[in-house]
Structure formats: C-alpha cells, structure tokens
Amino acid sequence: MSLVGTDVKGQNPVKTPTQQYSDPNAPINNITLTVPAEVKPILNVWLRDTYVTLGPDSYYYMTGTTATPGRPFPNDRVHCWDYNDGIYLWRSKDMHQWQPLGLIWSFDKDAAEWQKRGVPIAKGSKSVNGDPLDSMYRAAWAPEIHYIKSKKKWVIAACLNGGQGSFMLVSTSGKPEGPYQNIKGNKTHRIFPDIDLSVFEDTDGKVYLLGHDHYIARMQDDLSDIAEPFKKLIETPYNPEPYIEGIYLDKHNGKYQLLQTVWSVQKADGTYTYLRNEARDKNLYSYDVIVAEADNIYGPYGPRYPAILQGGHNNLFVDKQGAWWSTTFFNPRGVMGTRFPVTCRPAVVPLKWVNGRLMPDGEKAKAFYKNQKSIKL
Fold first, then answer.
1. What is the pLDDT of residues 223-256, one digit of tens each?
2. Whole-angstrom Cα distance, residue 349 to residue 95?
3. Do the domain assignments include residue 293?
C-alpha cells in the first residue's frame, strides 16, 4: 500500500513508502498492559487529559482540562464540554502532595479576541455523555506545560473546543506560573486548525508542534511561529484508520516514540478491535495508549502496539531518579466508567521498558500508591 500525505492546507503532497498495516486487535484481557488496580487519584480535582512534567527547579508541574470551579451543574454532573474559565496549574515535590498555583491563563484577562469569541451552541444541545450544554463553546482543552531547555522558556500548548483550533503560549516571567501570552503565530488566529496540540523538543534543540490527525511542523528558533507548514506524519496505519486522538511525542534510546489514543470496541465474535466505526460503534470499551517508533521524527513510524490499556490521552515524563511515568485521568466512558468509583481525576502510572516496548510497572505502582495518603473524593 502506498500513502500520500499532505500539509494541513491540503497542498504539498508528501509521498510515503509502501507500508504494512498495524495490528488492530485490542488485548483487553492483558493485565500487564492495563493501568494497575492500585492506581488512584492523586488530587481531588475534576480534571481530564492530565499532563505532568518535571521542571528544572525539581518540582513536578501538573495541568489538564478543568471545569470552572464553583459552577453549578444539573445533578452535580461536572463537565467542560461547553465552557471553562481557562488553564490551572499545580506543583509538587513528590507527586503525592500538590500545591495549587491557580488560574494561570484566563479567557477574560489573557485571551486574544479570537479566543474569547466562542461558538454559539444550539438550545437543547447535549454532550457525548448526555450533559445539557450552555449557550457557548469556549473551553481550553488538553493544556500541556513544557519547559524548553534550549530556550530556557516555559510554554503551554492547548486547544479550544467547538472546532476553534489550537494555540501556544509563552511565559513572560520565565516562571511556570506565568503570566502567559500568545506567541506571534496565534495572536490573531489559530496556529493549528484542530485539537490536541502538543510540543516536542528534540535533543538538538529543535522544537516541533504536533496536532490531532497525525500532523507535525517544526517551529522557528525563537518559538514565535511555525517554520514550515503542518504535514502528515508517515505512519503504519490501521486498515481502515479509525478516529485517533491525544498525540504525544517522546524519545527513548535515540528512537522517536509516537503515542496516540484509540478506543477499542467489541466485534461480533466477542473479541476487541481498534477499527471503530464512529457512526455504528457506540459501545466503547477501553481508551488505550498505542505507541509507534521511528528513526526520523517525520517517520516512517513502525507498527503500532498497545502500551497502556485504559490510560488514554496521556503524556510521558521522567522523574528525579530517571524512571518513566505516564499520566491518566480515569475516563468515565467505556469500561473505566464502571471500573473506577470516581472518574476525571488526575493520576500517574509508573512505566517500564521491556524488550524496547513501553508498559505499566505494576510493582512500582504498588509501592508508590502504598505511600499515597487517602484523598477524600
């Protein structure tokens, strides 16, 4: 099979080599790949798309998609499918106790006009979970906070709901708590037209933006804008390719590790697959992290493999001892909504590399959560 990728505007065709398809079978009964049972919330805050990083000051910093504090919801069903007030941040020395740093980027005080505008919602609309929606889409989703070592800058990548695209912010104080302002590339318009914007700094100091639906673009050296059009990553896809989200890039042993999130669904024969038909397959099962590896940042990326079952839309980070971790948030849809008594809370999952592949570390999870004080939920 030969694929042809394009840049985000549908121009500049990129020919890709003949590829094999990735195996779509979802190993739902594989306990060693599933978020360990010991994993529990590390903070009692409604939060999705948990993002954690270790800063140069030896603090861990955490952010994610939040709901506006104090907002009343029918039947106490908290959500942010319509709007929220911006981006919040927490920090910790040990990942057990977290200190709130508050609202570090606000729609009302910090957003550009195009970010403040919002998109009207038709009266009576509901979310994918059946939550009644208010009058406007204007929420900051999936924020990520990154320290760019080569530039000594703190930046945030995030997206807006309602099809309003993504943006990048830079701290004007040089501190993780900001204040933050839009970079030049998105002062007056979105820098990427879709959701799930992520940032990756390579070992040579070059910085890249990655976005939903398999896009990547290198940034200018001063991080003010992209230096090239977004173009498709060269991947080994599923056949057919389902809806995939939560893109994240890291590096291990000199190899690029491309993480994405995909839902598994049950087939007629009782097995599970990642080949989901959005129009037909409504009974979602597991929100899984899949990984693919490449020698070149643009690809080709090899076959995808399931790495962290039920732990989707995550990021990787390395702790002070050099050990690898993932974030998770207990997605309320699918099996997670029945497995966990409280959902949409931040948590961390210890990881290990086995034969070059990423997977949860159950023993380290037991040790870490044994020392985690109970949190009132």
1. 999 999 999 999 999 999 999 999 999 999 999 9
2. 11
3. yes
The CATH number for 177's domain is 2.115.10.20
Domains held by the chain: number:
1
CA distance 105 to 171: 10
| 113 φ/ψ angles, rounded to the nearest 5 degrees | -60, -40
Q: What is the pTM of this model?
A: 0.94
Question: Token pair of 376, please?
Answer: 């009132």
Residue 301 lies in a domain: yes
What is the 8-class DSSP label of residue 81? S
The CA distance from 273 to 26, in Å, is: 5
> 112 lies in a domain?
no
Q: Is residue 103 part of a domain?
A: no
- Residues 352 and 324 sit within 8 Å (Cβ to Cβ): yes
Structural domain range at position 208:
4-66+140-370
* pLDDT (tens digit per residue) in 306-344: 999 999 999 999 999 999 999 999 999 988 788 888 999
Supply 171's token pair. Answer: 């701290």
The total number of residues written for the chain in this structure: 377
